[in-house]
């Protein structure tokens, strides 16, 4: 239901808008005309922004169908006149802004009589709006905020604002104060908060006869971008005294065109600033500051003031005498000024600010923490001290502080470590935005610790902070914390640890994701808690991060892998046994041994006609029958027998390989005993290898006795084939 069309260079209201649109923003365009039919279908529209266009014409019934409209902004257009017919059906309208148009008056009839629910109204302009008449605000009884821009106001008809029975906040833009008292007379009993802007009070004169002292309800008075003189300042002080309800006065971005010489003026009849308890001054400009008096003539007016704020006004000294006159002061804020230890010594003199509880010296020119603490020992009632954004750099080992100190702000002071200098009575400590890398200081009464934007790697030790209830430690370099650490803070109610570089380990994620109560303790959970590592979850919320099984159960995975390897080795062993893997390994070794030698032994190296492979149990037949027959044949055969011809001391496998290679043939005397002999099998293995590798028929089989063909292993395929012949 939200339609955002601002800054689109539109020159008319877009067509096709329907009842589904509830918020329409067409500000900062070039629209010049609003017709009766442009918005007739937007019956559910609640917010309409037409600010900063070039609208000069709005037809009578343009807003007639917008009966649900609550917010209407027509400011900074070119409307020359206003019409009550625009608003007659806007019964629920709460906000109406008509500032910055070209009209001179608010129309011939009452514009707002139908707007019974209106709470915020802004009217007028800085040039042409010159009249406020009695009928202008007729029908309005209560407004939370009324802003009238009338820099060139020339006519104010008395009682024009009296029809509004209650105004919470009135903002008046007046260039000259001529009609200010007339307006003030009408609103003094119905207004809570008056804000005067862009006014030159050089000619302002307060007349006691103009305002009845009774029935005044104004509680706060603000001067924003207002110019004073010494004389007009005194007239304003008279106003404070006469409008007795004023409790708070603020001067924001004002200019004092004077030298502070109030001695010749009628201040002797004014004892106090009325009932003013809170005085705020921000960005006060004094062009003739170098001629300015010491203000001693107005010291006596400050006795009842309880809260004073003077910000960014180049204050470098509060005279001791003035400090002593501020007998009721409880709160003093001198932020963004030029106070140093030398001037603070004069300001915090003996009997100065006797009831001061809060002192704010943020962003001044303090450099010594030790000296600052000593200078404030005169403030017996001080409990809250803010000296942040000063350039202390370091902290001494010991310091002296007022005895009732409970709150101390040392943020942004560039300190790199904490020492026993801090008062043991502290309940609230702020050391944010420094260079701290650890916290190991015992503070038995500390309830709140603010230590964000430092370089801490872990949470502080809970034993140093036994009653801590709030810990804000965001934007450090903490990578984890545990349930045990949090449980050690027995009274912890709030922990802000967002913005750190969390290592999302399995333990940390299990703790963070399963603890339902954690959400009640962690501030900004879960959006501000994100993983920095592992890399595949970087940037994810801790609540949403998920790690794989192997990352979270590494020991179990390693054990499973080891078991799998063991089973694999066991299975490999069984398969090797069943599939003659050992034989293939032997064959590989024999092949490697043979490859190191010439492929075929030279003829001169052939020493034997045949190598005889037989079982020792068949030696009788071999040695006494076969060998005798062959070696005594004519011509005789030269045979190689392991008993007789193997080289002593040489590895038996090398003997076998060499003997087979140095023989033309290999005779296998096959029998049941041969099949059972391991060495015979090896000789058979290598001979079988020669059948493959050299493609010859060097093997001669002799069946000493009938044996089953199956007794020859399946792997000896060529030998089995020879047996078939």
From TrEMBL:
Q: What is this protein called?
A: Toll-like receptor
Q: Might you name a Gene Ontology BP term for this protein?
A: innate immune response
Q: Does the keyword Protein transport apply?
A: no
Q: How does it sit in the membrane?
A: Single-pass type I membrane protein
The record's disulfide annotation reads: 320-349, 399-421
Q: Which gene encodes it?
A: TLR2
Query: Which GO terms label this protein's molecular function in UniProt?
Result: transmembrane signaling receptor activity; triacyl lipopeptide binding
Kindly give the Pfam families that the UniProt entry links to this protein: LRR_6, LRR_8, LRRCT, TIR
Membrane-spanning parts: 555-576
- What organism is the protein native to? Capreolus capreolus (European roe deer)
* SUPFAM superfamilies in alphabetical order: L domain-like, Toll/Interleukin receptor TIR domain
- SMART domains, from UniProt? LRR_BAC, LRR_TYP, LRRCT, TIR
User: What does the record give as the function of this protein?
Assistant: Cooperates with LY96 to mediate the innate immune response to bacterial lipoproteins and other microbial cell wall components. Cooperates with TLR1 or TLR6 to mediate the innate immune response to bacterial lipoproteins or lipopeptides. Acts via MYD88 and TRAF6, leading to NF-kappa-B activation, cytokine secretion and the inflammatory response. May also promote apoptosis in response to lipoproteins.
Q: Does the keyword Amino-acid biosynthesis apply?
A: no
What Gene Ontology cellular component terms go with this record?
Answer: membrane raft; phagocytic vesicle membrane; plasma membrane; receptor complex
Give its localization: Cytoplasmic vesicle, Phagosome membrane; Membrane raft; Membrane
Going by the UniProt record, its keywords in alphabetical order are: Cytoplasmic vesicle, Disulfide bond, Glycoprotein, Immunity, Inflammatory response, Innate immunity, Isopeptide bond, Leucine-rich repeat, Membrane, NAD, Receptor, Repeat, Signal, Transmembrane, Transmembrane helix, Ubl conjugation
């Amino acid at each position: 239901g939200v339609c955002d069309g601002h800054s689109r260079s539109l020159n008319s209201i877009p067509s096709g808008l329907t009842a589904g649109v509830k918020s329409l923003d067409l500000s900062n365009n070039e629209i010049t005309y609003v017709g009766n039919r442009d918005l007739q279908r937007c019956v559910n529209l609640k917010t309409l922004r037409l600010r900063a266009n070039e609208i000069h014409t709005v037809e009578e019934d343009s807003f007639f169908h917008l009966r649900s409209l609550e917010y209407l902004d027509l400011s900074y257009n070119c409307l020359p006149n206003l019409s009550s017919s625009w608003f007659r059906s806007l019964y629920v309208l709460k906000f109406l802004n008509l500032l910055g148009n070209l009209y001179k008056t608010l129309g011939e009839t009452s514009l707002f009589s139908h707007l019974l629910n209106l709470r915020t109204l802004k009217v007028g302009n800085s040039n042409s709006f010159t009249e406020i008449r009695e009928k202008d605000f007729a029908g309005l009884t209560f407004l939370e905020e009324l802003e009238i821009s009338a820099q060139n106001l020339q006519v104010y008809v008395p009682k024009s604002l009296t029809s509004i029975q209650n105004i919470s906040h009135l903002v008046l833009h007046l260039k000259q104060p001529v009609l200010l008292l007339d307006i003030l007379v009408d609103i003094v009993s119905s207004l809570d908060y008056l804000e005067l802007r862009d006014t030159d009070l050089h000619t302002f004169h307060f007349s006691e006869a103009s305002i009845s002292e009774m029935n005044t309800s104004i509680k706060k008075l603000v001067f924003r971008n207002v110019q004073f003189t010494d004389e007009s300042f005194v007239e304003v002080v008279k106003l404070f005294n006469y409008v007795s309800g004023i409790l708070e006065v603020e001067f924001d971005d004002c200019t004092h065109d004077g030298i502070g010489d109030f001695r010749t003026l009628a201040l002797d009849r004014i004892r106090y600033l009325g009932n003013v308890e809170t005085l705020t001054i921000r960005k006060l400009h004094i062009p003739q500051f170098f001629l300015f008096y010491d203000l001693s003539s107005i010291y006596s007016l400050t006795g009842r003031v309880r809260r004073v704020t003077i910000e960014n006004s180049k204050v470098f000294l509060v005279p001791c005498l003035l400090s002593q006159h501020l007998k009721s002061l409880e709160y003093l804020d001198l932020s963004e000024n030029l106070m140093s230890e030398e001037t603070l010594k004069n300001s915090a003199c003996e009997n100065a600010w006797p009831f001061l509880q809060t002192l704010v010296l943020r962003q001044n020119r303090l450099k010594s923490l030790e000296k600052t603490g000593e200078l404030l020992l005169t403030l017996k009632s001080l409990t809250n001290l803010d000296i942040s954004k000063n350039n202390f750099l370091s902290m001494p080992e010991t310091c002296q502080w007022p005895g009732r100190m409970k709150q101390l702000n040392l943020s942004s002071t560039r300190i790199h470590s904490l020492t026993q200098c801090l008062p043991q009575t502290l309940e609230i400590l702020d050391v944010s935005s420094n260079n701290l890398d650890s916290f190991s200081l015992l503070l038995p009464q500390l309830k709140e610790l603010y230590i964000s934007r430092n370089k801490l790697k872990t949470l502080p030790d809970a034993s140093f902070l036994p009653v801590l209830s709030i810990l804000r430690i965001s934007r450090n370099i903490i990578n984890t914390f545990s349930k045990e650490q949090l449980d050690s803070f027995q009274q912890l109610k709030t922990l802000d640890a967002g913005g750190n570089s969390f290592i999302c380990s399995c333990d940390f994620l299990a703790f963070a994701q399963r603890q339902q109560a954690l959400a009640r303790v962690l501030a900004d959970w879960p959006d501000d808690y994100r993983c920095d590592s592992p890399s595949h979850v970087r940037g994810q919320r801790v609540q949403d991060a998920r790690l794989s099984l192997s990352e979270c159960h590494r020991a179990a995975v390693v054990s499973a892998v080891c078991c799998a390897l063991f089973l694999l080795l066991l299975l490999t062993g069984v398969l090797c046994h069943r599939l003659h893997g050992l034989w293939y390994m032997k064959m590989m070794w024999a092949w490697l041994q043979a490859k190191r030698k010439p492929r075929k032994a030279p003829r001169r190296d052939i020493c034997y006609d045949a190598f005889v492979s037989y079982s020792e149990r068949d030696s009788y037949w071999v040695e006494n029958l076969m060998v005798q027959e062959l070696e005594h044949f004519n011509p005789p055969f030269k045979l190689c027998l392991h008993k007789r011809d193997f080289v002593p001391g040489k590895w038996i496998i090398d003997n076998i390989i060499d003997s087979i290679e140095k023989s033309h043939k290999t005779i296998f005397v096959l029998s049941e005993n041969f099949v059972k002999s391991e060495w015979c099998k090896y000789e058979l293995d290598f001979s079988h290898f020669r059948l493959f590798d050299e493609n010859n028929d060097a093997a001669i089989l002799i069946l000493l006795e009938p044996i089953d063909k199956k007794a020859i292993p399946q792997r000896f395929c060529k030998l089995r084939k020879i047996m078939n012949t």
